[in-house]
Every structure is written in C-alpha cells, then in structure tokens.
Specification:
This protein is α/β, with parallel strands linked by helices. The protein is 38% helix and 25% strand. The chain contains nine helices and ten strands. A six-stranded mixed β-sheet has the order 6-7-8-3-9-10, sandwiched between helices. A four-stranded antiparallel β-sheet has the order 2-1-4-5, with helices on one face.
C-alpha cells in the first residue's frame, strides 16, 4: 500500500560562518509516522528541526512540507504552513503570566475568528488529550516539568495541525514521566494520525516511539544512518551508530 510523503528533505546543508554543521542531508517522512532525528550533542539535531519549521534558512538544498516549499513559500503558502504545523520547544516555552488554558488558546486567537467561548472549549479539549484537564487554570510556575511539556504539546495541537515537531521532549524528565510522555506521543500518532518529527538523544524514548529515524554525526557532518531504530540497534555496522544504540564508548 502506497504511503503519502508529507515531508521531503533533499541535499540540505547548514553552517554558520565558515563552519559546516551538516551537509547532504536527505530523507522523507510519511503521514502518520513518528520520525526521530537523533545523534550526539552538537550534531545539529535542533538546527535541522528549525530549518524544517522555517526559523533558519539552509545554505543548500530543499525542504518541502505538505507539498509546499518550506524555504521560500509565498505569503499565502506561508500562512497555510503556519496553520499546518505545531512546535513544542524543549522547555515547553509557555508564557509564565498566562494560565495553561490561556497558553493553549494563543494559536486560536492568532489564526482563527472563533469567539472566546469556542476558543476556550477547544483549548480545554486539547488539555484533556494530554491529561491536563484539572490544571487548565494553573500557571506554568505551579506545574512540573513534565506537565509543562504536555501543555506545550497541547498548544502545538491547538489548530489540529497534521505535522507536530517536538524538540527534546524527554530532556530533564525522570524515567516515569518520560515513559508517560512517550506513550502520549504514540497514542496521539495512532489515534489522530498526526505526523511527529521528534528531536532527541534519549535512547529509551527513541526505541519506544520511533517508527523510523535518521542519525546525524558531528564528525561526519551529516547523516550516518537511517531506518527503524530497533533494526539499527540490532544490525548496525557503523561503529558510531552501534556505540550509540548499545550505549558503548566508541573505540579510540
């Protein structure tokens, strides 16, 4: 059965000044996948995510999201893209002076003409999907780190985007909270058909949620692996890939 491709990345390169971060990065993401970008610190995982959501411009290559040029869209296409993707940053990036409900309502205020009661109802539904119905009126300072990340996911889902980008969702969480967040991501992908692009270096999360992945490497300045993370764990021959998935020190 044919699978619809919703993200196409071709020959993408990125650098800062004279420094090349990565080059020749190419991959596809299918609708409904949980696609993981992994690798060690400093390899460019979060930078690649920022390229995909339009915050940075690559030094070479093309990026297509939902059939739209993600690098140089015209104004109408850019607005369509903004409504079609949601992003959760590593800290949750919630506004501290607003309740969780008010945070989740922000995209609805910016991109819809819904009256406030309807915006509030939608926001409560999204908070319910991530298990935060009882915390809607709390401030970010009054909740745990795991709850903040779930609230960030709820806000990212406010407009029902087909694409969700999560930057280090498990970073800084205890194992139990991290496992709960992993389950939430898998449930949302399965139940809603949402496509997730997740940046992480947390091995347990990668194996728990990832349908496919790519691995970036700082020394190689690009991709060194692509595929099912469980197969890479069991079958990889590249020493860096094998060391990563088996939690081994690389040979000197």
């Amino acid at each position: 059965m044919a699978t619809e491709t919703v993200i196409k990345v071709r020959d993408v390169a990125m650098g800062f000044g004279s420094r090349t971060l990565f080059k020749d990065v190419s991959f596809d993401v299918a609708r409904g996948e949980v696609f993981v970008i992994l690798g060690g610190s400093g390899c460019g995982k979060s930078t690649l995510l920022k390229l995909m959501v339009g915050l940075y411009q690559p030094t070479a290559g093309t990026i297509e999201l939902l059939g739209i040029d993600g690098i140089n869209p015209d104004r109408g296409e850019r607005l369509r893209l903004l409504r079609s993707l949601g992003v959760m940053w590593q800290s949750g990036a919630l506004f501290g002076s607003m309740t969780l409900l008010e945070n989740v309502m922000l995209p609805l205020e910016a991109h819809t003409a819904l009256p406030r009661p309807a915006r509030e109802q939608v926001a409560r539904v999204k908070l319910g999907l991530v298990g935060l119905s009882d915390a809607a009126d709390r401030l970010p300072a009054e909740i745990s780190g795991g709850m903040a990340k779930r609230a960030g996911i709820a806000r990212a889902m406010a407009l029902d985007p087909p694409l969700l980008f999560l930057d280090e969702p498990s970073a800084g969480l205890d194992p139990i909270t991290s496992a709960g967040l992993d389950k939430l991501i898998k449930d949302l992908a399965h139940d809603l058909g949402t496509t997730f692009v997740v940046v992480t270096h947390e091995l347990q999360s990668i194996l728990a949620i990832g349908d496919r992945c790519i691995m970036l490497d700082k020394q190689a300045q690009g991709m060194i692996a692509e595929g099912d993370p469980r197969r890479l764990r069991d079958e990889a021959t590249h020493p860096t890939v094998r060391a990563f998935f088996r939690r081994e020190a690389e040979p000197a």
